[in-house]
Write a structure and sequence with these properties.
By secondary structure, this protein is of the alpha/beta class. The chain has helices at residues 22-35, 43-52, 79-85, 101-115, 131-159, 165-172, 184-196, 208-223, 261-266, 297-305; strands at 61-64, 74-76, 91-94, 119-122, 202-206, 235-239, 252-257, 277-280.
Length: 308
């Protein structure tokens, strides 16, 4: 079985991968308002981001301060540049399917306002221009690997051993659970973690952002020279999607709303009984506080970050 790992240019408005015209960026920003607290960004910040959005790449990073700091949002295309300027970075946020640069900035601002610390928002897409392609990529690439990894975990618990990646592909015809390197936001997160993990305190992923975390953590453990004690203070929070994460990460909190059909669909049955999983009554897939069915991000993060 061969899966399409990326659906570049599926939207005819995408003339080249990674670039979207300004007019389309404006349209995409409307969709961000449905899922994220874009009102947390000032009109000046949104105008500046939209005016420069043609130059932003998927996997790029926005360094976002809490609102009260009144400091300009900065864009970085390389993690090494980001960490050279901000070596004490400790918080990362990754939005989900259909979010554009505005959605990335809005989620980062929301997290920054809750923690009181600057947050890096990893740009996960180009909004409506990528909605279909990102949704398909999330389901067929990340989502399938997540379901396979959960199934393997159950198999290993029941029968002590299970098939490895090579056996999966050769005998069963299913894709490997190995790192999906074609996703720019995954590469960015992995790069930051390999350099910065002892200082990281919080990683938040919403929807496909959670699947990016699921994609990265096993690869991080394969490549890292750090020991578990170096990342024992790292809290990982997933919103709107439950994923199978390595047991080496002890401080994991996952949330899916009872009204979130997309999140429940993307959460494998085996993951729903994981002790890290929590149902949020009455919540849907969005994080926008003006929506009565939003997921209460502030309450969730304060609880997840509270010393236990």
């Amino acid at each position: 079985m061969q899966l399409i790992s990326q659906f570049e240019n599926l939207d005819p408005l995408r003339k080249e991968p990674g670039k979207v015209p300004l007019a389309i960026s404006l349209r995409n920003a409307v969709f961000d308002a449905l899922f994220y607290d874009t009102l947390d960004l000032s009109n000046e910040e949104k105008a500046l981001i939209l005016a420069q959005s043609f130059a932003y790449d998927e996997g790029g990073m926005l360094f976002v301060y809490p609102h009260q700091a009144n400091k300009t949002i900065e864009y970085f295309d390389k993690s090494i540049k980001l960490l050279e300027k901000y070596p004490d970075l400790d918080t990362i946020a990754i939005p989900g399917v259909g979010s554009s640069v505005i959605g990335s900035a809005a989620l980062a601002r929301q997290v920054a306002d809750i923690t009181g610390r600057p947050t890096v928002g990893i740009i996960a897409g180009y909004g409506a221009a990528d909605m279909l392609s990102e949704a398909l990529g999330g389901w067929f690439d990340f989502g399938l690997r997540n379901r396979i990894r959960v199934g393997l975990s159950e198999w290993q618990e029941r029968y002590v051993h299970g098939p490895d990646d090579a056996t999966l592909l050769e005998k069963y015809g299913v894709p490997s659970t190995a790192f999906l390197s074609s996703e720019p936001e995954s590469n960015t997160l992995l790069s930051i973690m390999l350099r910065q993990v002892p200082k990281l305190k919080l990683i938040v992923g919403h929807s496909k952002g959670a699947l990016n975390i699921h994609n990265v953590l096993p690869q991080f453990l394969k490549e890292t020279t750090f020991e578990p004690k170096d990342y024992e203070n790292l809290t990982i929070v997933t919103l709107g999607c439950g994923v199978a994460l390595p047991s080496a990460f002890r401080n994991v909190h996952q949330y899916v709303g009872t009204q979130d059909m997309l999140g429940r669909l993307n959460t494998p049955k085996g993951a729903r009984t994981d002790p890290t999983m929590h149902e949020v009554k009455g919540s849907a897939h969005n994080l926008c506080s003006t929506n009565p069915f939003h997921m209460p991000v502030e309450k969730i993060l304060r609880e997840a970050l509270r010393p236990h």
